[in-house]
User: What shape does this take?
Amino acid sequence: MKQVQCKVESVTSLTKHVYKVLLRPEIKVDFLPGQYLNFVMDESDKRPFSIASSPKRELIELQIGAFGADSYPMQVIERIKANETVQVEIPLGNAELRQESDRPLLLLAGGTGFSYIKSMFEYLADTGCEREVLVYWGLRDPSACYELEQTVNTIAKIANGKFIPVVETPHDDWAGKVGMVHKVVMKDIENLNKYDIYVAGRFDMVGVVRTDFVANGADIDHMFGDAFAFI
Assistant: This one.
């Protein structure tokens, strides 16, 4: 891990509450798909965010969900908007993609946990992966979805990739799957035991997913997520 200065390339809104941040590091940085960084507010205040981009990309992408004017993440957004450069610590985390494995992959995220799995499937697309890759993204309702077409196009570059967005409260024009995302997974997949499983989202959600998946045959030694260290 090292502290790196980054130029702020852009800050854009993906939804009413989710921001996309693109940073250009001043030196080459190495990280693994699925790792995170600390945004340095000051030396005693460092805030973690998953890296949403592939290590193969030139820019570092963050997807930051910010609810409330003076919330923990909104303070970061305001700092980014007010400065041309920012400091980050990179890389961090032990829930990165296990590239030595040849098992099929199940990538599951709720909300902005999507950034964690996006780094992985983007990297798998960049590197010509031929493993089975199932990507499930759970959201409250269709208004919380963003960059769906871009995601579909990226996963289409993976030979055996499939993208399944799931919403809990659909609108009349929603044609996709409906329900709690991990329950949809358990309906879709008969044998979870054969998968390397990566999970991101709210800690309470991740805890439920781990418990229910293991009860339905998933191998806990092949389940990964930063939240597992805290729950």
Remarks:
- The first strand starts at residue 2 and ends at 13.
- The radius of gyration is 17 Å.
- The chain has two domains: 2-92, 105-229.
